[in-house]
Write a structure and sequence with these properties.
single chain; mainly beta; 6-stranded antiparallel β-sheet; elongated
């Protein structure tokens, strides 16, 4: 079926665990049968008074003798219908509305005054997870019980004790659940201290008695529907119309999956999210079938260049909406100031050419062995680079006018000297 006015984006959205507690559907053994309040004193559990004086037994999953003998658990309703010696032996998944009844043949000697309980708790997983919390279903206390604080545990016409009866809750009450048969009233919360504690001593980490007789964990996908709601922000304006320049063949696909990864439904749009075709494994149309403990995956193909995507999922009861928004246009290019290249990406010229290690160059034709240059002396420079000052005491440049005058004066002096020498010789001869 094609649904108009729906919208999508790129995301993998965790829809979240089912925590919808709308009142339990468990049926106690007797309509007016009183039960004591569940145990919420976790620090002191198990309290000594829960085991009668003289009783040396404990819960059947402990190492001591079993507190009850010949247990039977009868399931009526769904595929798991049958009778089993323990809850753990139930071979198929319990379904909403299945009735589970517990009976037993006798108590261990000295334990006849013990209380026995059968309860259903909501859980976050279909298997036992010690790190999570399993809560007894909402007020009033939805469990069945006989013993101190309630009706006495007495054998029926068939000679068996019980029955204690609970009903597997509807998936609108809880998606995952845990059944507990216990010595004493049930814990209000099973989980780590201080918000809960455990029936079994090995999980608590102490040497006290184990109070768990039998247990079963199960669950199923929560039924819910999701409508994909698509919007676009173009040049800063939010609207329902996709941009005109979407790539050819642009497709939006939304896939819903169970908590185990199985595909539950698929929604496809080829018009930019203005409408979606919904196809569900269940055959339902008009919206996606989803698991509230599962996830949805959204893909845009081909991916849009640039831009950004935001997404939110909201649920009211079992109806959810995935609102996905693509931001395109000028708003995607003006959100950040430009980067100044000289201060962020370019090193100054004086630093880009500096070698990491100093290098000495030696001219082979120059003898430098007697000289040890300092790191700052350039080996090929042997004369000072400072010019001589001009003025008195400075010889004129060779070949200049002043040097020619000096040569003439010198020649005249030599001639005068030779003349004087000849006159002196003539005088002596005379």
């Amino acid at each position: 079926m094609r649904s108009r006015r729906t919208r999508a984006g790129i995301a993998a959205l965790a829809v979240g665990p089912c925590l919808l507690v709308a009142g339990a559907t468990m049926a106690p053994a007797g309509a007016a049968q009183p039960t004591p309040p569940p145990i919420s004193d976790y620090a002191d559990y198990p309290q000594p008074e829960l085991i009668p004086e003289g009783c040396v037994a404990e819960g059947n999953l402990g190492s001591a003798p079993d507190v009850v003998v010949g247990t039977q658990y009868t399931v009526t309703g769904g595929p798991a219908s049958g009778t089993y010696a323990s809850l753990a032996q139930i071979p198929a998944t319990l379904t909403s509305g299945d009735v589970v009844t517990m009976t037993w043949a006798s108590f261990a000697p000295g334990c006849e005054e013990a209380g026995i309980g059968l309860a259903v708790k909501e859980s976050d997983a279909p298997t036992f997870e010690p790190s999570s919390l399993q809560r007894l279903l909402a007020e009033p206390a939805h469990y069945d019980y006989c013993g101190p604080g309630g009706v006495a545990c007495e054998p029926g016409a068939d000679g068996r004790y019980g029955p204690l009866t609970v009903t597997v809750p509807d998936r609108t009450v809880t998606c995952m659940y845990q059944l507990d048969a216990t010595l004493g009233p049930p814990l209000e919360v099973v989980g780590p201290l201080p918000r809960g504690t455990f029936y079994s001593s090995n999980v608590r980490g102490d040497d006290g008695p184990t109070m768990l007789i039998s247990a079963y964990n199960g669950g199923f996908p929560c039924p819910a529907t999701l409508t994909v709601d698509k919007q676009w922000v173009i040049d800063g304006v939010l609207g329902d119309t996709p941009p005109a320049d979407l790539p050819e063949g642009f497709t939006i696909t939304v896939v819903s999956r169970s908590n185990l990864g199985a595909e539950l439904g698929r929604a496809v749009s080829s018009d930019g999210g203005e409408s979606f075709d919904y196809t569900n494994a269940s055959g339902a149309t008009g919206a996606l079938d989803i698991a509230l403990d599962g996830r949805i995956e959204v893909l845009e193909d081909p991916p849009l260049p640039g831009g950004s995507v935001t997404s939110t999922t909201t649920c009211e009861g079992q109806t959810c909406t995935a609102a996905l928004v693509n931001t395109v246009g000028t708003t995607t290019t003006t959100t950040s100031p430009p980067t100044t290249a000289p201060t962020t990406t370019t090193l100054p010229a004086t630093t880009t050419t500096v070698a990491v290690l100093p290098t000495t160059i030696v001219n082979p034709s120059t003898t430098v062995a007697p000289v040890t240059p300092t790191p700052t002396t350039t080996p090929v420079s042997v004369l000072p680079t400072t010019a001589r000052p001009s003025g008195a005491g400075t010889l004129p440049r060779t070949g200049g006018g002043a040097s020619q005058v000096l040569v003439l004066l010198g020649a005249g002096s030599i001639v005068a000297g030779l003349g004087a020498l000849l006159l002196a010789r003539r005088g002596r001869a005379a």
